[in-house]
Amino acid sequence: IRCWSNIPFLTVPLSRAHGKSFAHRSELKHAKRIVVKLGSAVVTRGDECGLALGRLASIVEQVSMLQNQGREMMIVTSGAVAFGKQRLRHEILLSQSVRQALHSGQSQLKDMAIPVLEARACAAAGQSGLMALYEAMFTQYSICAAQILVTNLDFHDEQKRRNLNGTLHELLRMNIVPIINTNDAVVPPPEPNSDLQGVNVISVKDNDSLAARLAVEMKTDLLIVLSDVEGLFDSPPGSDDAKLIDIFYPGDQQSVTFGTKSRVGMGGMEAKVKAALWALQGGTSVVIANGTHPKISGHVITDIVEGKKVGTFFSEVKPAGPTVEQQAEMARAGGRTLAALQPEQRAEVIYRLADLLTDQREEILLANKKDLEEAENKGRLALPLLKRLSLSTSKLNSLAIGLRQIAASSQDSVGRVIRRTRIAKALELEQVTVPIGVLLVIFESRPDCLPQVSALAIASGNGLLLKGGKEAAHSNQILHHLTQEALSIHGVKDAVQLVNTREEVEDLCRLDKLIDLIIPRGSSQLVRNIQKAAKGIPVMGHSEGICHVFVDTDASVEKVTRIIRDSKCEYPAACNALETLLIHRDLLRTPLFDQIIDMLRVEQVRIHAGPKFASYLTFSPSEVKSLRTEYGDLECCIEVVDSVQEAVEHIHKYGSSHTDVIITENEQTAEFFLQHVDSACVFWNASTRFSDGYRFGLGAEVGISTSRIHARGPVGIEGLLTTKWLLRGDNHVVSDFSEHGTMKYLHESLPLPQRNTN
């Protein structure tokens, strides 16, 4: 037996074997039996008189949803005192006679004092109404609720504990949600000086310990403690340096400073942490989160159960490496040091990485072989993704060449002056290039992406967080090790970090205080998910690569089949591969059209007919389901258009603003197409596959952007830079430039310094 808060606890409660809590958030989705503890700040209104009905309804909806999924839900609730206070105040006001109110005068009526209400009386008046409210709300979801009132004494008597345990198990067996509360009507008087704005709310501290005791007693998988703060902070919330603790481990409480109590209730965060640690020791996982925030309270419980990064998760398993938040901070600090290096030093790092890719070729290919074997054995990757996963000697050689290109072109990227203006005499303004900050690059099945993106981040002086797919874990590990080895020659090893924790992509996208730009590299579904999940962080990329080739009536016979074959068949899984072939109507039933169809058949390309194309055929291929389809395989859509104008309109309606091509010998038609198609890349008589950073001479790319701001098309070093303004003056003040001042604005453009082109 051990004691805590003057209440004896059995370390291993009766009939409960010592369980094991979940080690990671991602495992919480397996929780079957869950206790949700609602603090007074969650249940009550801001004036502490009455219930927050909208918030309570949202909580009931979430609990009902989880209950209907087959989970066993229990609620430990506060609120009886607040509800009772509202009722008793109402009764007191009604009991005042009209004559007395009129006799006192209107001004005195406004100042009429409401007597201090005793908390136990409030609880007695509010318990039935609180339960009636819960019953009405749960009835909307065809769920029955049952009330259980307990006191501390009920846990001292072994028979009472057995009875309570049996009652709860029977309710859960019948699919009933137990609503548990301390019987505040009969508890001992509160401690002195605990009055809060006229009401002694005595349930919070008791309910923290009650929730922990019940969770362990009932062998609960998860205890969710909802309060009015986001979770546990490393210093009092609201202080300048306060940071939310994502995962809290036993023993960490010595490094935490606890702040003041909740706005209502007798407990504080310290009491919640003690209760949480006690429950964790008993085998129950715990999350403390905010149940009052209007933006998240509507889904906070379901988010926690889904394993999302909400609140503070208590775990007994401490990871070997740093948290992702710590990695982001290391990347920022390392990136700033990297940006401060001389351009030649950053180039040396990239040259060193290029050398390591060829020198350590055998080790890299051996790690990649492990990834390929595991993927094939599990059968979880389609053939196109397996091709992306595969590394080869030729791929590594190409990577090394690309990295040397980046190193050579990076000499004058960071700190380059792009504008100089003389504002006034001895007052000069410069606009210079600087790194964006910390980049988060999320990529699937492409380990060759890691050194490419790392080199671009190094050249541009950015810190980098990399999140690769688990299918390429071995390859990514060795490539990251080599990247850090190269960075070490100038002491900036931490600038590039590989996220190896079980961090969900959606959680990474919420780190808006730590990450400045997200760049997804992968499937259209991955990109869409990231764009949806990113909260306050810009996303650079494209969700789809629906690339078009338009064959004009003046197209060259020799060029057509070569360009189409290369665009579709050279690498069909690439985002810059042809997906829709637009044919001018006048080319139907011509030898050129037949050659195109014959070539596609030889290459085993499956053809889908667009609506207009199908109308010209007696026996057509399968009609396309959507003209906005990215096949990513040996498949394409053929559609017919009447003119170059109609081709442009089709591309604007169904394309993804990625890469679009015209094949024609008519220069006027070609220029019309080039000027009017609003895509990131528009080509004339060239394959769509040229839309690539390496082929553009950028050395490599972090991705292809179809966004309308910042960078567009293949994004190299320039796309990873922003600018800042430097103003150099000599005792200048704005008042000198007023109507009667002594200074005048000049705003003269000054010549730029000579760029280093070596």
TrEMBL record:
One of its GO terms (molecular function) is ATP binding. Residues 323-588 form the Aldehyde dehydrogenase domain. Its main location: mitochondrion. Gene3D superfamilies: Acetylglutamate kinase-like, Aldehyde Dehydrogenase, Chain A, domain 1, Aldehyde Dehydrogenase, Chain A, domain 2. It comes from the Eukaryota. GO terms for biological process: L-proline biosynthetic process. It holds the Pfam family Aldedh. Its EC number is 1.2.1.41, 2.7.2.11. Residues 32-290 form the Aspartate/glutamate/uridylate kinase domain. The keyword Amino-acid biosynthesis applies. CDD domains: AAK_P5CS_ProBA (cd04256), ALDH_F18-19_ProA-GPR (cd07079). GO terms for cellular component: mitochondrial matrix. It catalyses: L-glutamate + ATP = L-glutamyl 5-phosphate + ADP; L-glutamate 5-semialdehyde + phosphate + NADP(+) = L-glutamyl 5-phosphate + NADPH + H(+). Keywords: Amino-acid biosynthesis, ATP-binding, Kinase, Mitochondrion, Multifunctional enzyme, NADP, Nucleotide-binding, Oxidoreductase, Proline biosynthesis, Transferase. Pathway: Amino-acid biosynthesis; L-proline biosynthesis; L-glutamate 5-semialdehyde from L-glutamate: step 1/2; Amino-acid biosynthesis; L-proline biosynthesis; L-glutamate 5-semialdehyde from L-glutamate: step 2/2. It is found in: Mitochondrion matrix. Can form homodimers/multimers. Bifunctional enzyme that converts glutamate to glutamate 5-semialdehyde, an intermediate in the biosynthesis of proline, ornithine and arginine. In the N-terminal section; belongs to the glutamate 5-kinase family. This is Delta-1-pyrroline-5-carboxylate synthase.
